[in-house]
Every structure is written in structure tokens, then in C-alpha cells.
Amino acid sequence: MQIKLTRNSDTNVTLAIVADEQTLTKIKSSTLQNLNSSNLKIAGFRAGKAPLEMVEKHIDPQTLQSEFIDTVLNHYYRQAMIKENLRVIGEPTVDLKKFVPFTTFEFEVTVDVLGDVTLPDYKKIKLAKTEAKIDEAQVKEVVESLRSRLADKKEVTRAAKNGDEVTIDFKGVDAKGEAVNGAEGKDYPLQLGSNSFIPGFEPAVVGVKPGESKTFTIPFPKDYGVKALQGKKVTFTITANKIEELVLPKIDDDFASKAGPFETLKDLKADIKRQLTIEKQNELDRTYETELLRAIAKKTKVAIPDSVIDEQVDRAEQDERQNLVYRGQTWQEHLDGEGVTEEEHRTRNRPDAEEQVKIGIILGAIGDKEEITVTPEELEIRLQLLKGQYTDAKMHEELDKPEGRQDIAARLRSEKIITKLTEYAQK
Questions:
Q1: CATH class of residue range 152-247
Q2: Is the full-model pTM beyond 0.70?
Q3: Taking the domains of the chain in order of start, what are their residue ranges?
Q4: Fewest Cβ atoms closer than 10 Å to its Cβ: which of 73, 105, 136, 383?
Q5: pLDDT digits (tens, 9 = 90+) for 116-130
């Protein structure tokens, strides 16, 4: 086999490949044997037992050539990638240059490749880790939330006041009288004073009586998540279907026993603090890992094909579209709400996509350098844990599929690599 490698760019190469006649002869024989083993029937011979010379005379020449060409291309393509130590990204473009059945075969293949990864001395990158701290005010907030959930509800006919739960229908329209997406609800239970709606909404509901409607205009916050609504004035019309006074329980040991398997209020508060600490620490750990990987990424050099980043953007958008379906919003409504075109949306998401791809490449390179692997036992333990979390039989089937097992193994390896990097960063 002869190979001539031409680098079109840091991430794209063309290989001119010339096959050797000896290998072509072997491939032709194996191709004939495969065709002979199929449903080919030749008089005087049992299926699959006819001589290859006889098979060639009875087989359709186009079928033979097609099978032969595919086999040769796959064989030499794989061999060339290994010999040139190329990390291929995406599907190749093949151009058959010369073919003389079955002695001469020359072709060119152009394909995107991953550039060389130049890692920094990641063992010397240090990053302090933050330990979670929960104060009494945070514990008290949870206790008050539990208190509200355990409160007795008493329907009243008076005007609503702070602390009441008001079941409302509401609808918001813009200055043109057009409905604002997401600003509509039916029989929504709103606890006044909870600050769960945009600022100004709950105070406007105070004073309304059962069966009464009210219209008011308030601006959305300037830092609101949907860009198109930031600072925008929306006119809401609400109808109070029911008003309930919440009779809050006394915060004591009896309250603790109703909130869970606790004998005393002290036990309840201790458990709340423990749970909050775990949640906060998990959040801090995720942030820490992201910052650490970004610090390594900034010092890593690697050329990434645009096609890989485009695929990552596509995947991110697909997830976003799926979430919109659950929320009952169309893609165009989402773009309009963000105040961007589809192309602007992709451009905005591209830096994050590139960073995610780069970090994935870095993790793989460090894993190889550190010789980090996942043992069959580790994989089985993780699979059993996941199966314990999901009782759905279909989910179990997905986990048992080869691609499912590979995905879990890849995640497990990434976790082990990140753990190793965290150890280096803490030394």
C-alpha cells in the first residue's frame, strides 16, 4: 500500500492511496467466498461449495465489482488511518481515481481530523475548593416552607391579604393587546407574600375578593430571563376563584413529627441542615469542576473541525427544542421571545459548544495519558445502580444495549479523570 498525505488545513487531510495487487487478489477471493455463501445456486454443487472460479462465472459482474470496491475502500481506509495516526471526525469523501478489475485500485479520501492536542502541565494547575456552609436563616426558610405546606386551609369570603392562598385565573397582554407567551394560567394557587411571581404581581392581588376580577399593569424585571420581556410592561387581568386562609401550625416537636420521621424539632432542623449542605456542596463541586476544566482548556491547544462544533450546536438546539415542546412553546416563539434570528441563536451558542467539545477532547487525552480505564466490574456496579433508580423495563433495555453500556462507561471514565484532576489541583 502506498499513501501520500496532504494536509489541507489543521483539521482536514487528503490521502492518496494505491492498493497492492496481492491484497486485491485476497480481497477478491474473500468477496467471492462471501457471495458463494449467500443464496447463490449453481447446478451440481451444494450451497457454498462451488469453486470460486465457477462462482465468478455465475455471479452478476456488477454485484461482484460493487462488493469488491466497498471492501477495498473500507480495508485501505482503516489501514491508512492507523498508519498515519489520524483521529478521524465525521464521514470521509471518497474519489475513485483508477480501477482495473481486479488488479489496480487507486483512490483519494478527504476527511476532517482532530488536530494534535497539546496539553499544559495540568498537575500544576491549582484551584481552591469551597466547602458548603449553611446558616440558621437558610434552615429557617425551609422550616417556614414546610410550615406552609402543613398548614390547614380555611376558605374565606373576605378580601385577600398577605399569607393567603388565592386560586386565580390570569392572562397577560402587551401594549398592543396581544397575549404574552407564558403569561397565562387557570386555577393557579398563588400564596401571597411568597414572591414567586414577578415583582409587583402579588401586591396587586392583595385586596381582591372571591369571584372578583382585577386588571393592572406592571413591568417585567430588567434582568428577566426572556430578553424580549426585559423591562416590558404587561397588563394582567386576574380573577380570584377562591381565597383560603392558611392556619399555620406551631413550630414544635409535634410539627417535626408531622414533617417526617423526627421525634424533635432539633432532629428536623439537623436533617434540613444536612440535606442543604449536601445539595449546596454538590452544586459547589459541579461549579468547581467546570472552573478547573476551563482553566485547563484555556492552556490547551487543539484544532477542532468546524463540523464537530456544528454537531454540538445541533445537539444543544435539539435539547432546547424538546424542552420547548414540554412547555408548549414553538421554536419561532422562543426565537421571538429572545429577540434573535435562528442564525443569531446558533452564533450565540457556538462558543459554549466549542468549549464543551474541547473539554471532551481534553478529558480523553488526559485519560489516555494517565491510563485511566473502567473495569468490567465498575461498569456492572454503575449499571445496577442505574437500574435501581429506574424501574421502567424499557430503560433497562436501553442500558443493556451495547451503545448504552458504552455511554455509561464513557461517563464513568470521565468521572474518574475529573476526580484525578481534582486530586492534582488540591495538592
A1: alpha beta
A2: yes
A3: 2-113, 117-151+261-303, 152-247, 304-426
A4: 136
A5: 899 999 999 999 999
